[in-house]
Each structure stands twice: as C-alpha cells, then as structure tokens.
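Example (one chain per record):
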Amino acid sequence: MSARPTTRPGGRSARVQQSVHQAVRDLEAELGRDGLTVPLIAARAGVTPSTVYRRWGDLRELLSDVAVERLRPDGPPDDHGGLRADLEAWAAQFAEEMSSTAGLAYIRDALLGDPEHGNAARCSDYAAEQLKAIGVRAAGRGEAVPDVESLLDVVVAPLMYRILFRPSDLSTAYTEQLVAVALAPATLRKG
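Predicted structure:
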C-alpha cells in the first residue's frame, strides 16, 4: 500500500502542486465543477496533462487532494484556558466549518480519492493533531486528558456522522454533550 506523505513537498514538486491546486480553485470558481478537465487545469497551471496524470492519476484524485489541503487547519486550536472550554470551542468550530456548504464539498471530495493514497486518513490526521495539541496543553496545566483515539471516537466520529447524514440534528448543545461524554471519568487519564 503506497501512502502519499502528509508533509508538503519541496522545490519543483511544491511549485507544481501549488500551481495545479490554484488552477483547480480558479477554474472551479470561473467554470463550476462540471467544467473542470485535466487538460484545462494543466494549461492554467502551466504544466502538461501528463504531469497531472502522473502525480494524481485522474481528476477525481486531484480534486480529493485539493480538498484535503483546504481542510488543513490554519494553525493550532485556540486556548480557552481549560480542557473543557478548549474542546467545546474546537468541536463547535469543527462542526460549523465542516457542515458549511464548502466544508461538505471538501469532505465529499476528500472521501472520493483513492484510499491507497490516504486522503481521508490525512483529514483524520488533521483532527487528531488538533486534539493532541489541546491535550498536551491541558496536560501541561495538570488536567486529566482523554487519549486522542477516544476523542476521535467520542467527539469527531459522531460529528462527522451528523454532518454527513443528519445535519439538522447538529447544534452547539450536541457538541457540548459529546465533549461531556468524552470528559467523563472513565475516559480520562492524568496528564
């Protein structure tokens, strides 16, 4: 099983990725999704179609890769002074961003990619990294912290289900309830 690295490539590879991703975003804004083709994207990016096919395989995989990059967090999660407040704020923001029209489109595109290249796993890694940062910060304050996998299972997985299948049932009260369950004594360990 080959896995695409989660770090950004450097040098020429990075320039190609950036120009192709930008071409996708620009053309999608101009023509809509249905107007996108690999030759059109390649021409806009200043590369050959074979470069795009060699790197991404097909249009669906390219769109998945672009979506994953759009889902990458801009920075570490905000510090609200305590684990519960940090998790509640993060979960509410995650739910809001991922349930937006753009967020849903990015999620769907990310899930369309070849599972062997790990685009969906990269999205999961972004959430795990954010939760780990919250946990490390809380442990540094001496708070008991659930492990990241528990947070993924108890907070992120149900949120993704609601976002994708039952968005009308998504609310701040729901995200706060998930955090409360995650912070129940059975899931906590002392940092």
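Caption: Residues 119-140 form the longest helix (22 residues).
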